Amino acid sequence: MQKNSEKNRLIRLSKSVLSEIEKDAVKKVLDEGYLGMGTNVKIFENNLSVLLKRNVVTVVNGTAALHLALQSCGIGKDDEVLVQSITYLASFQAISASGANPIPCDINLDTFTIDIEDARKRLTSKTKAIMPVHYGGELGNYKQIYDFAKEYGLRVIEDAAHAFGTVRNNQIVGSFGDIVCFSFDGIKNITSGEGGCIVSDDENVLSYARDARLLGVKNDTEKRFQSKRSWEFEVVNQGWRYHMSDIMAAIGIVQLSRLEEFSIKRRNIAKIYDYKFKQNKFITTLSRNYDEVLPHIYPVILSKKIQRKDFQKYLLSKNIQTGIHYQPNHLLKLYKKQNFNFLKNTESIYKNIISLPLHPEITSDDINYIVKVIEEFTNNL
Ligand SMILES: *Cc1c(COP(=O)(O)O)cnc(C)c1O
Questions:
Q1: Regions of the chain where pLDDT drops below 50
Q2: Cis upstream peptide for 326 (omega within 30°)
Q3: 16 neighbors 186 (Cβ within 8 angstroms)
Q4: How far apart are CA 17 and CA 187, in angstroms?
Q5: What is the pLDDT of residue 340?
Q6: pLDDT value, residue 338
Q7: Contact indicator for 359, 187 with CB cutoff of 8 Å
Q8: For the stretch 292-307, what's the b/e string if a residue is b when 16 or more beta carbons lie within 10 angstroms of its beta carbon?
Q9: From ligand 1's centre to the CA of 182, what distance in Å?
Q10: What is the residue with the minimal CA distance to atom 13 of ligand 1?
Q11: Which of the listed residues 172, 193, 218, 294 has the most CB atoms within 10 Å of its CB?
Q12: Does the beta carbon of 161 lie inside 6 Å of ligand 1?
């Protein structure tokens, strides 16, 4: 076994974990010669539906899922959508793509999920929806979010890109809630290369999305599932080329069957990190219950005594990659104009967050090494 003291290979922040089974599945699609949206997409949707116990519409990526979900429930020009500022740019871009304005909200510092008391202050007559981001796989104050939405008649579009496989009260995320959107991009909890899906009980939303992912062509989905197409058709709504291909679905089907394997590994890694950092007063971990949360990322808060740039540089010099999830969106030029208020928690913390390597191929040897390198750094402060 390799010594802990030095690593001669980079420990990556995140990565896709693929086996021969995914490769064989893709080869089969290539051999068959139909690469578009067909039987594999149908099977992937069915398998997702069995797990999530509701109907599923797959799309080309998670951003498209959010965009279509918004459009499918009639959110558009001049509407406002409440969303935490600390999220991937995709949440904001999906909202602005729909024509609506993302309204940046603050976060709770223990979980990095939306602070409902802050969101309440940002309500206007134009507010139509709230987009809770399940940051790192954590649902935050889920009941409070839904109570708030009910009180003001808002749609809830969950950005569950990080939360595939998370459970709450023994129920898997996606099996409950108004509209839930997942991403299957290369580094998410499961991948289909790129990809995403929308899950809901609202058949109106799902059937709108089914058409809108195929340029708005009415009922084209059923035809494609039979390897047919619509040559004469009707279009009522603006649509997009947002459907998934059979190559992607073939990868997704295999990855979905490996969810349990990935879950055990991801949860275990996060638990070990949590345990190891208990003794380091320069590192604050988030409060998450890994019996429920399936962690997509492992962010920690660095003490103000640490210059993040130096910390990242030091770790990289030791072959450890780190990331920042995320720089706040309300500070970007495109969204700055909507920055009516100072986001207290967000601005107090965003320069001190950093994410450590988390993916199913991280070994306990890797974790020991990472923790030791961080201790070397903090011991010299
Ligand atoms: C990955 C991600 C998305 C978008 O998913 P893509 O598949 O990359 O388009 C949206 N929101 C969050 C929080 C994400 O991490």
A1: 1-2, 4
A2: yes
A3: yes
A4: 8
A5: 63
A6: 60
A7: yes
A8: bbbbbbbbbbbeeebe
A9: 8
A10: 88
A11: 294
A12: yes
Q: At what angle do helices 62-72 and 203-212 cross, to 10 degrees?
A: 120
Dihedral of alpha carbons 138, 143, 148, 152, sign = positive
Binning the chain into helix, strand and coil, the percentages to the nearest 5 are: 40, 15, 45
Residue 279 carries which DSSP code? T
> What are the two backbone dihedrals, phi and then psi, of residue 107, each rounded to the nearest 5 degrees?
-120, 160
Nearest atom (ligand 1) to Cα of 61? 7
What is the C-alpha to C-alpha distance for residues 102 and 82, in angstroms, rounded to an integer? 6
Which structure tokens are listed for 201? Answer: 């009980």
Best CA proximity match to 358, nearest among 56, 13, 43: 13
- pLDDT attached to residue 342: 85
Instruction: Name which of 345, 298, 306 is nearest 322 in CA terms.
Output: 298
Best of 88, 138, 213 to mutate for ligand 1, by most ligand atoms within 8 A of CB?
88
Q: How far is the CA of 183 from the centre of ligand 1 (A)?
A: 6
pLDDT given for residue 1 in this prediction: 46
The per-residue pLDDT for 66 is: 98
| pLDDT given at position 297 | 98
Q: Is the CB of 114 under 6 A from ligand 1?
A: no
Q: Quick check: CB of 193 below 6 Å from ligand 1?
A: no
280 exposure class (CB count in 10 Å sphere: 0-12, 13-18, 19+): middle
CA distance 115 to 128: 17
What is the distance between the alpha carbons of residues 332 and 53, in angstroms, rounded to a whole number? 38
Per-residue pLDDT of 192-235, as tens digits, reads: 999 999 999 999 999 999 999 999 999 999 999 988 888 899 99
How distant, in Å, are the alpha carbons of 36, 173, 244 from that of 167? Answer: 33, 6, 26
